[in-house]
From TrEMBL:
This is ABC transporter domain-containing protein. Pfam families: ABC_tran (PF00005). Keywords: ATP-binding, Nucleotide-binding, Translocase, Transport. GO terms for molecular function: ATP binding; ATP hydrolysis activity.
């Protein structure tokens, strides 16, 4: 269980996240939504350890993440970032292999088991055919899938994904989120003790209909604060969403009746 309590974080002394609290259970997908500038990426940066808390705490199973070494944290939290400053001269295989860095011995070489994990993650993310390609030659969508593969081989109990569908076409958006669901429900082992472990996934998403389809719970942020946190039907309410996003929105049922469908009301 990841527990964020009364977290206040900022750049310099000015707080951006203010008194943010929520929980994320193992095997759960929590979608973080909110308007531009609400603090979603700042939350990902804080959870990944880039920004230290000004107040409050971030704990996993009671352990304060701020007390961990860089290597310990890398075994705890994997990030699929929005920015892709990947070294252009690396092959796709090398980039995915970097996910095993926190587990490598002093010589820094992948074991046959590590290589098998890399192959499995590349199969699962439909990137196996790219293994020998240089990342500088790949499309945004291909890079996004590689970054998911890298996070998978890191085999951490918590995964943070910051707008992972941004550069993907509709087919790959659905494919990527299906894979996140698959990993959360049927994880791969590789965390050193050989036991598969269901990670918790926090996913920043802008598309509210993908949120409705894929999230177990939703965290709505406005102006650095938690406006609402709960199930999809608790949070995807027309009045609350319209106020948060500043446009009138209606929430209907999808044609198959299974999911809420968020529709902007155009004048
Ligand atoms: N490096 C930085 N230095 C100073 N302020 C920053 C920095 N990065 C973000 N901010 C500010 O923090 C606030 C929250 O930004 P953040 O990127 O977390 O929002 P967001 O919800 O992820 O937005 P978006 O949906 O546009 O990606 C904004 O006011 C932004 O200007």
């Amino acid at each position: 269980m990841l527990e964020v309590s009364h977290l206040t974080v900022g750049y310099g002394s000015k707080p951006v996240l203010k008194d943010v609290s929520f929980r994320l259970a193992d095997g759960e997908i929590l979608a973080v939504i909110g308007p531009n500038g609400a603090g979603k990426s700042t939350l990902v940066r804080a959870l990944s350890g880039i920004l230290p808390p000004q107040c409050g705490s971030i704990r996993y199973n009671g352990r304060d993440l701020c007390s961990l070494s860089v290597q310990e944290r890398a075994r705890m939290i994997a990030v699929v970032p929005q920015a892709r400053n990947l070294p252009a001269g690396f092959t796709a295989w090398q980039v995915v292999s970097l996910g095993r860095t926190p587990y490598l011995n002093w010589f820094g070489q992948l074991s046959p088991a590590d290589e098998e994990l890399v192959r499995e993650a590349m199969r699962r993310t439909d990137t196996a055919h790219l293994a020998e390609r240089l990342v500088g030659e790949l499309s945004g969508g291909e890079l996004q899938r590689l970054l998911l593969a890298r996070a998978l081989v890191q085999a951490t109990p918590v995964m943070l994904l910051d707008e992972p569908t941004t550069h993907l076409d509709l087919q790959y958006q659905i494919g990527l989120l299906n894979r996140v669901v698959e990993v959360v429900r049927q994880p791969i082992s590789g965390n050193g003790n050989g036991k598969p472990h269901s990670p918790a996934a926090l996913v920043v998403l802008h598309d509210l209909n993908l949120v409705a389809r894929y999230a177990d719970r939703v965290l709505l942020m406005v102006d650095g604060c938690v406006r609402s946190c709960g199930t999809v039907s608790d949070v995807l309410r027309p009045a609350m969403l319209s106020e948060a996003f500043g446009v009138p929105l209606e929430v209907m049922r999808s044609p198959n009746g299974k999911y809420p469908l968020v529709v902007p009301l155009m004048a």
